[in-house]
Amino acid sequence: MKLINLKNKSIASDYVAVELLKLIQSTPTATLGLATGNTMTEIYPRLSELLTANRVNLNDIKTFNLDEYVGLNSSHPQSYYTYMHELLFNHNEWNEDHIYIPRGDAPDLEDEAYAYEQRLFSIGQPDIQLLGIGENGHIGFNEPGTSFDSQTRVVDLTDSTIKANSIHFDTIDDVPKQAISMGLQSIMRAKRIILLAFGERKQEAIERLVNGSKTETLPASILQTHPNVDIIIDDVIFNYLNH
Ligand code: F6R
After folding, report:
1. What does the H/E/C string look like for 18-61?
2. Would you say residue 197 has pLDDT above 90?
3. Residues in the active site (predicted)?
């Protein structure tokens, strides 16, 4: 794992947007593993600008999102489908047939999760997988205690994740309690992983990831054994790690 301090979210987002652009330009058939949440909000608009400025052909690019809330349909304002379309997919000529996001309102959620994993497996390894991290060390919605062998499936969100996500909903009761999430094994198949973390709330999780041992109580620690991981942090976390 390589730790990279890029000062703040804005500079880090520019860096990651350029990494994605370079991949898309050098590999027009690339597969991107994408994440949602606050950490990613500046990357996608920046990438959209770069794609427009460079007139990039996206027809053969495939994207897989990490997760989706159970119970929200694609038109729900807080679904990750809506998030991704508003921030990224509505802005350039992405090929809708190559955009994969689990359906949180599928009639059979287990079938949906299984089919998603099969699709991911058959299309191949993502060339780059973006990750945020939960305060409790989750990646995707693989909460503490998740098996390192896990694949895409329906997961229960922990109280701390529900609370963290509640800022986007009117009341805490409106926050979905479950999600469909790629598993830890699914994530580890990516050729390159870029995990981003900013601010005080994430500092302890990053310290455990960087200095702690590999344990299922910190799901992100599985990344310690991946050959190509960049952990991008801001000054807040950098200073905390060096206190
Ligand atoms: C989102 C995801 C989650 C988030 C994590 C951090 O697709 O899989 O693991 O990356 O919960 O969320 P934010 O960025 O909102 O702090």
Report:
1. HHHHHHHHHCCCCEEEECCCHHHCCHHHHHHHHHHHCCCCCCCC
2. yes
3. 67, 136, 138, 143
